[in-house]
Each structure stands twice: as C-alpha cells, then as structure tokens.
Amino acid sequence: MIVLPDEFQMDWGEMKLDVKIHTTNERKVFEVAFPDGRPRLFMSRSVIASGQKIWMSIPEGRQKEALPIGKVIVNYFQQQQNQQ
Question: Do residues 35 and 63 touch, judged by C-beta distance below 8 A?
C-alpha cells in the first residue's frame, strides 16, 4: 500500500512543483503550485465511461496541464512505493 504524504515536491520539466493532497468526499484532490506564478491547478483522477482512469482539472479547462502532471504524480508514487 502506498502511503500518501500531505505535501511533496516533484520535478516537471525545468520546474519544481509543490503538491498538496486534500481529501473531500473520500476523494483525493491534488493542488499543484507552480513557481512561475501561474494559477494553482486542482486536479483529481476520475474514471470515465470506458473504465479508463484519467486526470481531470477542477474546474475543467486545464486538461493540457492536468494530464502530463498527473502522469508525473503517478510516477512519483510508484517510485516511492519501490523504495519502501
């Protein structure tokens, strides 16, 4: 089982992103802060009709950021799990 920290930092391209995890209605919401001043990104992993899991921005509209950042979050936790 992966233990999720409340906060962590991860690399995304040339940037270090600060990520906080919130739980609401038993659902994990990730808050991503960018060092370049752009607005924080809130995102969650959702299951679509086909059964596939995808990252969704909250509110919708920032999918171009949510999808690649979500992949990095998944990789981050997989690495953490491999180190345990």
Answer: no
CB atoms within 10 A of CB 74: 13
- Kindly state the tokens that stand for 83: 């180190």
Task: Give the chain's end-to-end CA distance (angstroms, integer).
Answer: 10
Token pair in block for residue 16: 């270090």
Q: Where are the domains of the chain?
A: 7-83
Q: In whole angstroms, what is the distance from residue 47 CA to residue 56 CA? A: 10
- HSE toward the beta carbon, residue 67, CA cutoff 13 A: 5
Q: Could you give the CA distance from residue 45 to residue 81 in angstroms, rounded to a whole number?
A: 19
Quick: pLDDT tens for 18-30: 999 999 888 899 9
pTM > 0.85: yes
Strand-by-strand arrangement of the 15-24 sheet: 7-12, 15-24, 27-33, 41-47, 53-57
